[in-house]
Specification:
The chain is an alpha+beta fold and 221 residues long. The protein is built from 8 helices and 4 strands; from the N terminus they run H-H-E-H-H-H-E-H-E-H-E-H.
Length: 221
């Protein structure tokens, strides 16, 4: 698969099959993604991967916190507001997904179904946790973004689908305890990996993208 095909094929998978991702495939994905650029080759990312019973334990504790209505507290602060244009796109995404899902799942329980699916990590067989030293500045976040995109594109080469989601790191204390992540490492983002359940309604929606004419200003061409 070439890069353009991978970019067009990638989507946020919200329903995975139970089939595991092999250790060999995971290593191949991470080896390729590790070529991502970083400021001065600092490579500020620390990567932890959970699968099998290890991930199952994390999932169980997340669901227990949901049942007990324990609020999450991510290592990095969540945005409190968005510029109007971004907020409009965020709202439009939610409305479009809810409209599609409500056709089969019913409006009364839809919010609960979606929330539980988030806390189950979309039933993914593996989750990659991206961490960085707490002393680093937001500039290193660019590098983590580069390596996370590289992970998702490399995964496409091996037929593995992905879902980057802040919900995957909603309770960093659980992840830190299970994976022995030091306190001086911030757990920034999670990327769920696995094989998409193509027939599941949660995977039918595809978000729109703005045109190049709207997003970019080109000069001198």
């Amino acid at each position: 698969m070439n890069v353009i095909d991978a970019l067009n094929a990638r989507f946020t998978c919200r329903a995975f099959k139970s089939d595991p991702v092999s250790r060999e495939t995971m290593v191949q994905i991470l080896e390729a993604a590790n070529r991502a650029p970083s400021w001065g080759n600092t490579q500020p990312w620390d990567i932890y991967v959970a699968a099998g019973e290890v991930l199952g334990g994390i999932r169980t504790e997340f669901l227990a916190n949901l049942a007990d209505t324990i609020p999450g507290a991510t290592d990095l602060p969540l945005p409190q507001d968005w510029p109007t244009a971004l907020k409009d796109r965020y709202t439009s995404l939610g409305k479009a997904r809810y409209k599609l899902l409500s056709e089969e799942l019913g409006r009364d329980t839809l919010a609960q179904i979606i929330q539980e699916r988030n806390y189950r990590f979309f039933d993914a067989p593996a989750v990659v946790y991206l961490c960085m030293d707490r002393s680093l500045t937001p500039y290193s976040m660019f590098d983590l973004g580069a390596v996370s995109q590289s992970i998702m594109l490399a995964a496409q080469e091996y037929g593995v689908d992905s879902a980057p989601a802040i919900m995957l790191v909603l309770y960093p204390q659980i992840i830190r305890k299970t994976l022995a992540i030091p306190e001086d490492k911030a757990i920034v983002m999670g990327v769920a990996l696995g094989f998409a359940d193509a027939d599941n309604i949660h995977n039918r929606y595809r978000s729109e993208r703005r045109s190049v004419e709207e997003t970019a200003k080109l000069y001198g061409f």
